[in-house]
Write the C-alpha cells for this entry.
Amino acid sequence: MTGATPFATRELHAPGSAGDPWWRDAVIYQVYPRSWADADGDGIGDLRGIASRLAHLAALGVDAVWLSPFYTSPQRDAGYDVADHRDVDPLFGSLTDADALIARAHELGLRIIVDLVPNHTSSEHPWFGEALTAGPGSPERDRYHFRDGLGEDGSEPPTNWQSNFGGAAWTRVTEPDGRPGQWYLHLFDPSQPDLNWQNCDVRADFRSTLRFWLDRGVDGFRVDVAHGLVKDPTFPPFGTPPGGLLEVTSDAPFWDQDGVHEIYRDWRELLQEYSPERIMCAEAWVSPADRAARYVREDEFHQAFNFEFLDTPWLAEPMRDVIAGSLAASDAVGAPTTWVLSNHDVLRHASRLGLPQDEEPPNGIGPEDLQPDAALGLRRARAATTLMLGLPGGAYVYQGEELGLPEHTTLPDEARADPTFTRTRGAEKGRDGCRVPMPWTKGAPALGFNDTGAAWLPQPDSYADLAVDQQDGVPGSTLELYRQLLALRRERDLGRAGLAEVEGLGDEVLAYLATAPDGTRTLVVANLSPESIELPAGTRVLVASDELVEGGLPTDTCVWAEI
Ligand code: BGC
C-alpha cells in the first residue's frame, strides 16, 4: 500500500535497490560449535552435528551461518586460541567434515562465514615455540611482541597494560639458557600471545589462511578483535585499564589504531579476486559510531557488528538515538548497519533485558548474584528482536535466541571454563552462561544435544520447556515468532527499506515507517512506556512480539503493521 500517512515522519535512511548484494540485508545466525549439536556424543558439539541440524536454520529463514572457531586449538579460550588456522581440531572433526558442512549448507541455500582470529595465536602455535627457542632479537620473536622488562633485573612488565581477561597483559618467559627473560604481550589470556602485524611473515600467513578457506568455498569471515591488531609502537603507559571484556576504550594504545585499516584494505582486495562475492564482518568494539564506521568504508569490511546497539539499555531515548545515529554513521560511508543483540561474549538478551536497565550489565551471573526477571526479560527480548529485524541493514542472531533462551545464571563455579573467571579470581563470572548446549528435544539425553547425555556445560532446568520440539508449530512460541519475522522481513524487503521516524506516538514509543524499494510500507512500533498505547488509525497488525490487549499495544511489545 502507498499513500499519505496520518502522522508526521522524519527521514533517517534512504531505501536500497533491488540489485543490492545479499550481505547488505542478510540475517546471519551464529553457531557456537561447542554447543550446538554433538554427533559423536563426547559432550562437545562438532561439525558433523552442525551439518545434521542445518535444516533447522533453513526453516528458520536465515541467509547465512557464522561458525565460531573450530580450528586446531588447546581450547584455553574455547577455540579463540588457534594453534593451526588451516586445520580442524579433532574435537570438532576433520577438514573433510568442514567440506561436507560447507557443501550441505550451500545445498540448503545457506552461506557459510568462518571466524578468523588474527590478533593472536595460541601459545601452542609452532611460531610461538620457535620464538621461545630462538631467543631475544630473533626474527622468530619479531612475529610477536617481545620486550625486555623494566627495572634493573627486568622483572617489571614493559607497560602497565591490563589483559581483557584480568591481570597483566604481559607474561615473562624463561630463556633457552634457563634465565628469566623477556616479556610477551597478550591482550587476552597468557595462552594467546598477540601477533606483531608489522611483521611480513604474519601478513603473508594470514593471506594464505584467507585463501585456504576461500578456496574451500566459504562465503566470508567474521574477524575477531578487528580493532586490536596494531599497537602504538611507542608502547606508552595506559592509565585506565579496561574494566571488562573488550570494553570500548578507543583511546587505548592497543585499540582502534589507524594502522589497522591498511590490513583490511589488503584483505578486501584479496577477497575481490573471488566470485561469487565473499565478505568480511568486523568484530570491532569501537565507539563512537563514526569511528566504528571507518571499518566499513567501501574498500574495507562489508559489515561491522553494531555493538552500540547491543550495549544500549531498553529505554526509549537511548534506543532512538542509537538507531538514528548508527544509520547516519554507516550511511555516511555507504555501508549497511549490522544489528546484533546477543553473541557468545555477552549476557543473552533474554536475561540482560530482565535486569535493571540503569546499570551496566555484568560479565556473567552466578547463583548468588541478582537474578534477572525471566518473564520480563523474555518479553523485552521478543520486542527488541522484533524491533531489530524491522530495521534496514543486516542482523546477526545468536544460537538459541530463537528459542528465547535465558542465560544460565546458576552455573556452579566448578563448571566454569571461561578464562575470565579464573583470571579475575571469580570477580567476573564470565561468559559460560551464554554458551550452554542447545536444547533440541525435551526429555532426550542432554535435551537432544547428543545421544549420550554428556554436556561440557550443564543445561539449566528451564531449557527443557524451551527445546525446539516444544516450540515447533506452537503459535506464539518464540521460535514461531522468529520464523514469522524472518519470513515477513524477506517478503516486505525490510532489510533494504528506507526508514523514517514516526513522530507523535509518545516519548517512550519507538515508531518507524519502513518503505521498501517497491513502495511496500511497514510500520514498526515498540512501546517502551509503562502504559498500553493505541496504534495509529488504519493500521493492520502483521506480527506482534506478544499479544495485543483490546487492540492496544501493551508495554514492552513491538508490532509490525501494514499502513
Ligand atoms: C571473541 C572472544 C574471545 C576474544 C579473544 C573475542 O572478541 O569473541 O570470545 O575470547 O576475542 O579471541
